[in-house]
Amino acid sequence: MKTLTSFLSGTWVAGHGQAALLYNATTEEPIAEASTVGLDFAGALRFARQVGGPALRRLSFAERGQILKRLADAIVAHRDELLLLGMINAGNTRSDAKFDVDGASATFAYYAELCKSLGEAHYLVDGEPIPLGRSSRLSGQHVFCSRTGVAIHINAFNFPAWGLAEKAATAIAAGMPFVTKPATSTALLAHRMFEVMIESGALPEGTAQLVCGGAGDLLDHLTSQDVVAFTGSADTAAKLRGHRRVLAKGVPVNVEADSLNVALLGPDLDSGAPSYDLFLTCVVKELTQKAGQKCTAIRRIFVPTDKVEQVVADLIDRLSIHKVGAPSKDEVTIGPLSTAQQKVDALAGIAKLAAEAKIVFGGPDSLSLHGADPSKGYFVMPTLLVAQSSESLSAVHSHEVFGPVATVIPYTDSAQVVAQIARGEGSLVASIYSDDKSFLQDTVLGLAPYHGRICIGSEKVAGTFIPPGTVMPQLLHGGPGRAGGGTELGGTRGMTLYMQRTALQGFGPFLESLATAGAKLSGGR
What is d(CA 184, CA 35) in angstroms, rounded to the nearest whole number? Predict the structure, then answer.
């Protein structure tokens, strides 16, 4: 059984005492262990601030981009090895493992190109000069400069590769060293990917550190120049935000948490229309990909009342094609959930939703596996429920089942559906499918305050549409309310989490020279 060590202060170190076990999600066999007991987190953070930070800040954006390019290339070179680890530990099919690992390398590659476009500058310029008097002699200018602390990255179990990369890429681009802590249960892939990153020789000393196991007293050593970026449950996020050191030092905490994402079918679409087919394709993909273990997966499906019967029949037809079982089998398209607790939580969640809506496909009593022992593994069948009315629902609008589960909900008009979707209290992404410009305008603008991203599917983009569950590094990833209120990625916007925005005021020509030497906040693709 493999022992997952941590990489702290430039050295691979193992913890002591009782270790946490990692399991094969298909067979439930223990495959690795990890412990952080006795590790010096205070020293690791000091090392990052004193060694890693200065080394990164000395580099221009273009030079940081070269680091990111080498990291992307290293991951691609070890792709097959990393895919296999995702299949073993996280229960991914090969396709789902590709989604995770390729997402990681693509994010590094994107930020490499973005940094290249920002050139030899070391800071970002936000907006144009602002006259503060009748002439330009006295002006104001906003700039973003790298923080001098360290970023703490706490990632979720479902994307051990991509989750690490999206936070690491923006931190490196911004000039801030980081300590990354993957979820212990699926850390096998993250551990190996981090090894690959270190072995590439791309990272200056002290710029990247890894914690495999419990967080221990990691947060007890935060300073006012540090940052925490977290992906996971709302309960854990609340504890992080309330940590005494976070409160005492005013440490920024970026959170991506629960999300009841929606797909909305417009009343103008009928079976056979390209936009209708796009809707079905996206719903089924988001319900089945990664066994529904995506923060961007569709949980609520809003359909005009008179189209519910047809939509449900079409979704069942498409879901019936999918096979659940051992991810190593070619015919299997849905693997197990990642952990035993995830299976327990998902089954309990289905029961909660079934008290309000009818299960029309799948469910806990319909387990049918391919190439796997039904007495082992963390399998949950894809499950589709249908509600009779949107008004009487409670759990459907408040409880996220983190698995291959979604509920069809009828609606009557755009005003009513916007109000019902808003009951989710904030989500990462909504997708709307319609060719009716009036309906799109009403719903897009009505839903915007409750979502971090809205994907608009229509006949004009049906052939090039990117599914809503695919997070694009060019666009912000995050959402209000229940979704955590945080933002990641989004080109240079994602970098600003690790930088301090400062308003400069003084002699106009001097500020103009500073602005000329910086890179524009909106720079890059």
Answer: 9
Domain residue ranges of the chain, discontinuous segments joined by +:
44-257+508-520, 261-483
- Best CA proximity match to 336, nearest among 516, 156, 157: 157
Cα distance between residue 139 and residue 127, in whole Å: 13
pLDDT digits (tens, 9 = 90+) for 418-436: 999 999 999 999 999 999 9
Which residue from 309, 306, 319 is spatially nearest to 280, judged by alpha carbons?
319
Residues 194, 109, 95, 180: is their CA dihedral positive or negative?
positive
Q: CA nearest 391: which of 372, 409, 366? A: 409
Q: What CA–CA distance (Å, rounded) separates 193 from 316?
A: 38
Q: Which residues are catalytic?
A: 256, 295
**Three-state secondary structure of 282-328:** HHHHHHHHHHHCCCCCEEEEEEEHHHHHHHHHHHHHHHCCCCEECCC
Calculate ∠ Cα 3-76-328, nearest 5°.
65
Q: Which of 212, 232, 189 is nearest to 19 (CA)?
A: 212
| Tens digits of residue pLDDT in 490-520 | 999 999 999 999 999 999 999 999 999 999 9
Looking at the domain that runs over 44-257+508-520, which CATH code has it been given?
3.40.605.10
For 189-245, how does the pLDDT look when each residue is reduced to its tens digit (9 = 90+)? 999 999 999 999 999 999 999 999 999 999 999 999 999 999 999 889 999 999 999
Asked whether the whole model's pTM tops 0.90, one would answer: yes
Dihedral of CA atoms 517, 521, 522, 525 in degrees, nearest 10, equals 80
The residues, any chain, with a CB within 8 Å of residue 237's CB and separated by 6 or more, are 230, 253, 255, 257, 484
Q: What pLDDT is stored for residue 237 in this prediction? A: 93
Looking at the structure, give the CATH architecture of the domain made up of residues 261-483: 3-Layer(aba) Sandwich (3.40)
